[in-house]
Specification:
Blueprint (H helix, E strand, L loop, with lengths): L1 H31 L2 H8 L4 H11 L9 H10 L4 H13 L2 H11 L1 H22 L39 H34 L12 H11 L6 H13 L4 H13 L2 H10 L2 H29 L16 H15 L1 H7 L10
Helix pairs in contact: 1-4, 1-8, 1-14, 3-5, 3-7, 4-5, 5-7, 5-11, 6-7, 6-10, 7-11, 7-13, 8-12, 9-11, 9-13, 10-11, 11-13, 12-13
């Protein structure tokens, strides 16, 4: 039990800073990006919107936890479901920092192949979502309106300003991300973090090394990676260790793609917001593309007789421990409304964004 609690806290430490960054990004999008612009950029259906979303999300330094509030904010601002799914996959799978760490620990081939595979899985999964007929999701995006209310019963019209004239846009963005949006996802988010901590305790990463290579190994990696929380950058040293332990590069790639792209929190929130059919297609597309990319990588390495083994180097912690702890404590304060209202009273006023 002590180990489970410590692992849950470790997930909190790993996720909190990026989650807060994602909440800020969602607030900034809501405050500064007009809904009409969002609809033009990511609101269209089809390949163009999916590709734009994948390319837009790929370089962002957001993990699978931090991307959730940003993606939900985009969806509520007019992004289509397929574009939202594409953004949800491409953003946490790769970023500039994770590519740099990949190059340092696993060599140039994986540093190039990994983001290409991430974009491929994001675009294919997004296009697969277009096959799903419109369904009434458990929580439609209109449940949180453009005027920052929990419903539009009081009357939200197009005449309402995007931001009150007396309201600073940055403050409005902070209030939206730290209160309204976080309140919507906090219950599911904390449940996902707790489950991720339990998974990390019962299935430690070193256990994966025994499964070696081939399709069966990739399927095992898939089943373990889907519910597990691990950021793209944090997953890279683990993946390098698996390579040296004898796991094939293709199997490691499945871990690198699936682990950062999804976790229990994202699965539950997607089902709640976009509907179960879209969530199922999201998981199916991600799984198929990850395995296909892994099999192709193993074949290319065998065909060209490329040596993937690199020397293990000690990777310094990407974030200072103090910043991680402060972010986790701030997140806990924000999640608890009563404590938030006492310690952070400036967030009490509703934001009109």
């Amino acid at each position: 039990m002590t180990e489970i609690i410590l692992n849950i806290w470790q997930v909190m430490l790993d996720a909190s800073f990026w989650l807060l960054l994602g909440l800020l990004a969602a607030g900034l999008v809501k405050a500064y990006v007009p809904e009409s612009a969002m609809q033009r950029w990511m609101g269209g259906s089809g390949f163009t919107a999916v590709t734009r979303a994948a390319l837009f999300g790929a370089p962002l330094p957001l993990c699978s936890c931090g991307v959730l509030p940003a993606a939900l904010g985009m969806y509520r601002s007019g992004a289509s479901k397929e574009a939202t799914v594409s953004f949800l996959i491409s953003t946490p799978e790769t970023s500039t920092d994770s590519v740099a760490v990949t190059y340092a620990l696993m060599g140039p081939l994986m540093a190039v192949y990994r983001p290409i595979a991430a974009l491929f899985s994001a675009m294919v999964s997004g296009m697969m979502v277009t096959l799903v007929k419109d369904e009434e999701p458990p929580q439609a995006p209109e449940a949180v309106s453009s005027c920052g209310q929990s419903s539009c019963a009081s009357g939200c019209s197009s005449e309402a300003p995007a931001v009150e004239k007396t309201e600073n846009r940055l403050m409005a963005a902070l209030r939206y991300g730290a209160t309204e949006l976080l309140d919507d996802i906090s219950r599911w988010l904390m449940l996902g973090i707790i489950l991720a901590g339990v998974m990390n305790t019962l299935i430690p990463p070193g256990w994966l090394a025994q499964w070696g290579q081939g399709l069966a190994a990739m399927l095992i990696m898939l089943l373990v990676g889907i519910p597990m929380y691990i950021c793209a950058s944090a997953s890279t040293p683990v993946a390098a260790g698996l390579l040296i332990a004898g796991v094939s590069p293709g199997t490691v790639l499945v871990f690198l793609l699936v682990g950062p792209a999804t976790n229990m929190a994202s699965i539950m929130l997607l089902s709640k917001t976009l509907g179960r059919q879209v969530t199922a297609m999201y998981l199916l597309g991600l799984s198929l593309c990850s395995i296909a990319s892994g099999l192709l990588l193993d074949w290319l390495i065998r065909f060209y007789q490329y040596d993937m083994l690199v020397s293990m180097e000690k990777t310094e912690q990407l974030l200072p421990a103090g910043l991680q702890t402060a972010s986790a404590l701030l997140l806990l304060i924000l999640i608890w409304p009563k404590l938030r209202s006492i310690l952070l009273p400036f967030l009490k006023a509703p934001a009109q964004v």
